[in-house]
Amino acid sequence: MGIDGYLQLEAALVKHLESYLEKVDNEQETISSYLTDIDSLHEHMHSPEAYYGNPINAFLTINRFAIIWKHEIFDVLLANRTYSEYRNAVEGELNKKKLNGPTNEDLLIAAENLLDMQEFTRIPTSELANEVVLRDYNTDQNVTLSASECHSIGSNFYELQSYEYAAQWLQQARKLASLESSASASAIKIRILEHLVLVYKKLNSLKLAYKLNNEILKLEPKNEAALNNKSLLETQLLLDRIRIAKVTVNEQMDENHLEL
Q1: Which of 13, 156, 176, 204 is most buried by its number of CB atoms within 10 A?
Q2: In the chain, what are the domain boundaries?
Q3: pLDDT, tens digit, 9 for 90 and up, residues 21-63
Q4: pLDDT category, 1, cuts 50, 70, 90?
Q5: Contact at 8 Å (CB) between 31 and 76?
Q6: What superkingdom heads the lineage (predicted)?
Q7: Nearest 5°: phi and psi at 141?
Q8: Higher pLDDT pick, 154 / 180
């Protein structure tokens, strides 16, 4: 390899290393911010009984273990070689103290409690979503539910077959996600839209499901699930139009017979 080749190789190494370091910095900033929020929550929680008496707080705590710690913290760290050392230390500590984190089943139970509360109190979803769940003492601002948390509530309500409430929470998540501009914003938007498509199919709102499915394809043209849904929804919408046309014709024929 000549000097020119070495220079090209070096330029490529610099390019990829800079990209890697930028990614690591972004990941570290995101994780550090999250850890700061959790530290603040623990520090200023004067009465755990009162805090967890609110079903939203109980849900969010379990959601942190079942979703956020796994997907937004541990999965991010998986790409880091030092993760194995960290994981071994954590596993050793958990085994030593015989601790187990909550399961998805626990999360579903927490969601069911939250659903029961919302159905009983009739508090609007938008009001619950804007409830203060944390005080950021660094910025002296209140923290409300994030797009990811609203999405988690909505997706669990979907599992509980409460489709109307699921739609409300997922729409709230969609609204919040539209305000985010982080590197992961596009991914969360797609996950929210995917669940909304499922919900509106259950609610038989096929036109809305089709519209939202097309939004997924705008964000990710090769999304396999959305491409499959597109064909299925187009077929269902066509069959609905044929059925409506037949009903209209039959009604018109009945009217003509009555006139005779």
Answers
A1: 156
A2: 1-42, 44-201
A3: 676 676 677 777 777 877 887 777 778 888 778 888 888 888 8
A4: very low
A5: yes
A6: Eukaryota
A7: -125, 155
A8: 154
Phi, psi of 162 (to 5 degrees): -100, 80
**DSSP sequence for 46-88:** S-HHHHHTSHHHHHHHHHIIIIIIIIIIIHHHTTSTTHHHHHH
pLDDT digits (tens, 9 = 90+) for 100-119: 656 788 889 989 999 999 99
Task: Render pLDDT for 177-191 as a digit per residue (tens, 0 to 9).
Answer: 988 776 667 888 999
The answer to whether 135 and 44 have CB atoms below 8 angstroms apart is: yes
Nearest to 31 by CA among 182, 209, 142: 182
Q: Note the residue count of the chain.
A: 260
Q: What letter does residue 221 receive in the DSSP assignment?
A: T
> What is this structure's pTM?
0.67
- Cβ pair 156, 108 in contact under 8 A: yes
Quick one: DSSP state of residue 142? Answer: E
Q: Which residues pair with 143 in a beta bridge?
A: 134
Q: Which residue has the tokens 């610099």?
A: 14
Residue 144, SS3 per DSSP: coil
Q: If you average pLDDT over every residue of the chain, what do you get?
A: 79
Exposure letters 143-177 (e unless 16+ CB within 10 A, then b): eebbbbbbbbbbbbbbeeebbebbbbbbbbbbebb
Q: Which element (helix H / strand E) includes 136?
A: strand 134-136
Residue 126 corresponds to which tokens in the numbers above? 């938008």
* Token pair listed for 157: 């309500």
